Input
Amino acid sequence: MDTLSELVLEMNRLIDAANENQIHLRAFGGLAILVHSQNNPRFFKRDAPDIDFVVPKNERHKLESFFQSMGYSPDKQFNLLNGMRRQIYLADTNGRRIDILVGDFEMCHKLPLDDRLHLHPVTIPLAELLLSKAQVVELNRKDALDIISLLLNNEVGSEQDGKIGVDRIAWLCAQDWGLYKTTSINLKRVEDLLADDDLKTTMEERDLVLGRVRQIQKAFDEMPKSLAWQMRDKVGTRVRWYSEVEEVDQ
Amino acid sequence: MSNLFVRKATGLVRSWSVMDAFIYAFFSINLITLGLYSFSQMYYFEGGMVNALIISAIFIFFEVIVYAGLIAVMPRSGGDYVWQSRILGGAVGFILAVTGWWFILWLWVPLYGDMFRHIVVVPLLGILGAKDVALWFAGTQNGAFTASLITLAIVSIFIALGMKTYARIQKFSFYGGVLGLLIVIVLLLTGSNAAFKAGLDANAVSMFGTQPGVYDATVALGIDAGAITPFSGGALLAVFLVLPYMVFFNLWPNWGATLYGEVRGATDFKRNVAGMGWALGITTLLGILLLYAISKTIGWDFYVQAGAAWWNYAWGYVTEVPALPVWPYPALLAAFLTTNKVLQFIVVVLMSLWWFGWSGTVFLSSTRVIFAAAFDRLLPEKVAEVNERTGTPVNALLLMVIPSVFIAYMFNYNVANFQSLTLASTLVIAVTFLGTTIAAIILPYRKPALYKASPIAKYNVFGIPLITVAGVIFGGFLVFLLYQWIFDPNGLYGIGITNTSSIIYMLSMYVLAAVIYFGFKSYRKRAGIDMDKVQAEIPVE
Output
């Protein structure tokens, strides 16, 4: 099994080589959280996270030859059936798995990313990175800690200033009531978790994260809501508001 | 904090929702294409059409249980191939799956093409005033072959677009098609027989250049052809003898079985039953309603006689072109009830969506069987590759398309009496389904660990596994169908032992499958791969 530092090295090696091949490979998931949690990584809890990437749709066809040149083999059966949206590659040496989403991030909710992958040289933008965790309906402790880690290490504000783009988050949630709902539920879960003594947060850390959570919640209150959004809000959670996500048995 | 969950890895949103799977099942037993096409051919039976619809649906519901159960136990791309090869053995699994899900689909291409010309091309051209082109498509072998080639092109494009886009196409077609059907039913229920007669005579003359008096001439031709099938009723045996023809239309609610590796929540047995079961139930009810509406305004006798007149000519029993020189498409006949050309056009366009939403079924399910066999290394690995730029499984498509062109030529030009093989398209698949049904019956005993760990283990009937009970009932039904088709004691189906072309064609497919299987098994053995071991393992998702 790779160590965390070996995985970070491998992630950077792949991104650098992809850039040289005009492929916009950008990380999401645990390693991307780590990249943005350098000031205070103590809430980042992983032994060996997966390496997860997103790539633009129109660069999908370059992936197989690129990864083969980097020492990886495609999961042919999986890629055959799902390759338009998702691909898996396995390292020839130790079977390390690389998951790649094509075009958009699509799990419980969809985050369009195709034209957003140039904004950061290593990861998907901070707003989408936060939402990639906050959109998980069945949020686990690791996901919640990832959200805390991101909010602790990054200000919420203008994307242009390198902060978590609150306008982008609000805009995406204004387009998609389901995403708003799940994100709201999970921000509340994060608030609950922060109150947990086991987490051993300092008062200062707790207030900082809670303040940033409330900035996002305030943006939700103030964002313009379409008639369709308001109608969906009236229906509420009586109708399922997210896509079912299944694990891939490999 | 207690309201958190356990999750192991980056998840996957599978391409299709349960709704997509339902629509696929709904279109696979397509009332307008397969249904109306076969109903029009079934003009010489003594059993009632509605009775046969209901009885066949009851038996086919047990098929739904069998397949929903197997999907819940092993939701894998490749469906029947995976189940049979893992439960019954590699040779049986490969031979039955590739014949029923691959080779015989070549024969379905000219049938899809035939329905394309009758349901889409001819009615639209007629309404648009292109009489000569419409009649060329309707009544010539070149027209029929061209329709097959266009069908192949459309289907290939649909497959190339991928599962997700195809799901959008079929969803759009579903809503549009159902709207069209509702308009047709309203037209029929609010019309009168007198208005229909007048509309038919007027429109047949203006659209297709027929002589006046089409209605009466068609009645005479139908009577000469022996049109007798009643709307309902008939002795039980007579009704049962209708079933081997009826299932050409409705044996397929399980047609998505090979795709369930790409459907969300496929391990949920009840959900699988609901998806296929509702498709079967709704289609059966719509069928009864449509036939009732037809009988009310078009008149049941005329409907059966018009079908008889057309097929008596199309099958070559008479050489004179029927009074109505196009296939008597009930949606077009319903459109004759209005003089509004725009409404006629809208009705036919909406109804054509039944064909477009369904057409991909001819290859889509098959590609997954080819992939699964290729991943087991019973076919060259190249077969399971996609074009890097387009994401299209080019080689698998070519294995479908190229033989289909040849078979479509044979069928449309009636070489070696190929047009008599229509029901062979159903027989070969029924044999495959019988293999899968036997696999389902013995699953709890042959693979007890797999079965007991599955979500269907809790469903029993008097202590016997539900999948076994359902399998025995559906298997019995299949045996009855196969006996009637092959031995054909009443001479009703024309594809059995008395039809040399049919027997040679079907046997040649099994021989081809056996040659491929044993050839590749031997080839892999020389390379050090034991195929028996490969096929003993359950493939990954």
